[in-house]
Amino acid sequence: MEDALIVHRLHFAFTVTFHYIFPQLTMGLALLIFVMKTLFLRTADEKWNRAARFWAKIFGISFALGVVTGIPMEFQFGTNWSEFSRSAGGVIGQTLAMEGVFSFFLESSFLGLFLFGEKRLGPRGHWFSSMMMLVGSWLSGYLIVATDAWMQHPVGYLLEPNGQFGLASFWGLILNPWALWQYAHTITGAVQTGCFTMAAVGAFYLLSRRHEDYGKVFVRTAVIVGLIAAFVQLWPTGDSQGVMLTRYQPVTLAAMEGLFETERGAPVAILGQPDVPRRTLDNPLMIPHALSFLTYRTWAAEVKGLDSFPQSDWPDAIPLLYFSYHIMVGLGTIFIAVLVLAALLLWRGSLFNSRWMLWILMLSLPFPFIANTAGWITAEVGRQPWLIYGLMRTSQGVSQQVSAGNAWFTLIGFMGMYAVLAILFLFLVYREIERGPGEDSPGTLAGAAEAAD
Amino acid sequence: MGTLWFCLVAVMLAMYVVLDGFDIGAGVIHLLVARTDEERRTVIRSIGPVWDGNEVWLLAGGGTLYFAFPALYASSFSGFYLPLMMVLWLLILRGTSVEFRSHVVSDIWASFWDGVFALSGVLLAVFYGAALGNVVRGVPLDIAGRFFEPLWTNFQPRGHTGVLDWYTILVGVAALAALAMHGALWVALKTEGALNERARNAAQAFWWGVALLTIVITVASFHVQLLLSTAFSAHVWGFMFPVLAVAGLLGVAWFLRARAELAAFLSSCVYLLGMLTSVAFSLYPRVLPSSVNAVFSLTVDNAKAPEHGLRVGLAWWIVGMALATAYSVHTYRNFAGKVERSLDEEGYGSSPQKI
């Protein structure tokens, strides 16, 4: 059974990690497209509209992949985690079903209008459809985060005599404080992904001296929106998550920080490698007292280390948890630095001539995806060994009758299929970037041949 | 409360079959009726703006099933592990083929996605039919309400069963014929000219297959699952469901001959609804019969979620579905009539050179 458990965990981890590449991009782009459509309505400058149209194409490709890779997530609650579903379906089924009923119908109805209906809808109607895409994708994100938040911090439930969890308070579930902060943190992360993607494409155009007008539009919009998101990411949303962890998952906090022993005036480790069997942090680079301040707001507060908790309650992959947390925070800090610098140059009017800065923006592209993924690994590995924190162990939630062999079979199948989807995604997005905004004839060979005629 | 949610989930899943059924059916007949690139683009465009919304009925229906009957969701999804995963892969292939075909102008590219679209349609139809066959036949649910079925064992519908046996394969083939007819009627409704004529001929040809297979699977179902005759003899009013199916099927033939395309398509919807409600009626109050011991069957009472959640859910479900219905009506209205053949129209299956 142990053997199958690992495969089922890998199965979910792999499929959800791949899936989340797309929603973080579409949730971020949805906001940026809406901003550009709004600016178009206000200024009547066609440039904004063409910029929005260009990003809508990339949004459309990403959205399609988000949809097709999202369906397996809903199914896996039943196929791979059936014991969890049997117990908790009465509670988290609420948010999952609401996502289908409220978000997916809305998104699927407006997506076609948004992508292909500009002529028919007119400027105001099309602006409205871009707003509905924003509402739909952000609502979908909330309902999923609320589902996860219940697993992190279960509230509003009661235990039925037959061992099932039942809903006790609908609003308790929907307005779970954990969900509110986690959502704010998640969505600002998605906005940063959208912004860094847009900035990278803009910087690419400026550096290669193509579509320079649009390159400037992209970089400017992305840097301004991204700067706001990067600060909100740190404070209050990231900070509040830390405070919640301290209160409700102190053992997770200790593992994330690599704090093996309870300490007064605990430091924050910036670098170092946790050695779990020896219970030490090798090669540490520390900021003294910082952890105590961040968690309890006093420099000398006592922070519980892993030694305060029975080892059976420790997260089972402490090094992974430690590194993903540090990667998330480290990258988040670097993003703030990059965006502050870019915004200063923009304010001074020299950003578009600072090729070194454009190079940095272009090469930053993969890092917000990595940071968002690392953040989710921190949340979900940090929840271990619990599936529902404090109530159900991960090993109790797995499908008992699905063997490791069957799970490997489908995991390998997903890996193959997603490899193809990844190649398709890169190929199609590259073509859109290559074709560029503002041009009516495509940059394909067929289009070029036609233009030459 | 359990019965009410049984009906609501059944309605959502039936909507899925009727709506996504024609998308899948369009895939099944894609290579048969559409010969040129332009015709194939037209078939894709006939479902382009609606297929995603149609698939949402599966997601929303599945989500509602999860919320209302968690034990059924848990047992059936883990028990049907492999076929469900394959359905997921097919849904991924179908979705990408519709979305990505028009992105690149190349014969190789288009032919590849045409093939993927057709193959995923055929396999999805067979798998869905086989799934329905499994629910009717019953699965080896144990006392704890769990089971696991491999893809196949000895192809016999008794004893140690697999997902595929002669009975469920038969239902799968019937579903393939029914969805092919359904899809052909949709394509006929949305197109003109030679494509329209070929689609109507295909619907006509598949009609005979559907009629024959309907009789065969009805006889086989009564043979495999004794609950069916019990249900119909206990409540005679239940015969209205099979009668509905037969009326729908006759309607298809009648309206096809009269060249009333919309009426023929709607009759096909009635046929599908009649077949599905017949199954739902004859199994109720069971939602998944056990082939090991009748007492182990999952029913609306032992599979439903705790009461308070179901009552709360009713409030948001009504609001949400009212909105969803409004969106759907709006989308279909917008998309009413024949698919235009002009090439400069934006959108699915259009030629990117001209945008």
- Total tally of structural domains of chain A: 1
Q: Spans of chain B of 5+ residues with little confidence (pLDDT < 50)?
A: 342-346, 350-355
Please indicate the count of domains of chain B.
Answer: 1
User: Gap between N and C termini of chain B, in Å?
Assistant: 53 Å
What is the number of strand segments of chain B? 2
List SSEs of chain B in N-to-C order.
Answer: HHHHHHHHHHHEEHH
Report the sheet-strand fraction of chain B.
under 5%
What is the number of helical segments of chain B per DSSP (H or I, 4+ residues)? Answer: 13
Which structural class do you get from the secondary structure elements of chain B?
Answer: mainly alpha
Distance between the termini of chain A: 66 Å
Proportion of residues in extended strands of chain A: 5-15%
| SSE arrangement of chain A, N to C | HHHHEEHHHHEEEHEHHHEEHHH
Unreliable segments of 5+ consecutive residues of chain A: 441-453
Q: Globular, elongated, flat, extended or rod-shaped: what is the shape of chain B?
A: globular
> What is the mean predicted local confidence, pLDDT of chain A?
92
Largest interface: pair, residues per side:
A-B, 73 and 70 residues
* Cross-sheet strand order for the largest sheet of chain A: 1-2
Spatial shape of chain A: globular
Brief overview, please?
The complex is a heterodimer of chains A (453) and B (355). With 453 residues, chain A is mainly alpha-helical. Helices cover 74% and strands 7% of the residues of chain A.
Question: What is the topological layout?
Answer:
The complex is a heterodimer of chains A (453) and B (355).
Chain A: H1 2-43, H2 46-79, H3 82-116, H4 118-152, E1 157-159, E2 165-167, H5 170-174, H6 177-207, H7 212-248, H8 250-257, E3 263-264, E4 268-275, E5 280-287, H9 290-296, E6 302-303, H10 318-348, H11 355-363, H12 366-383, E7 386-388, E8 392-393, H13 394-397, H14 404-435, H15 445-452
Helix pairs in contact in A: 1-2, 1-4, 1-6, 1-12, 1-14, 2-3, 2-14, 3-4, 4-6, 6-7, 6-11, 6-12, 7-8, 7-10, 10-12
Chain B: H1 2-33, H2 37-47, H3 51-68, H4 70-79, H5 81-100, H6 107-137, H7 166-190, H8 193-224, H9 227-234, H10 240-257, H11 261-283, E1 286-288, E2 298-299, H12 300-303, H13 307-334
Antiparallel strand pairs in B: 1-2
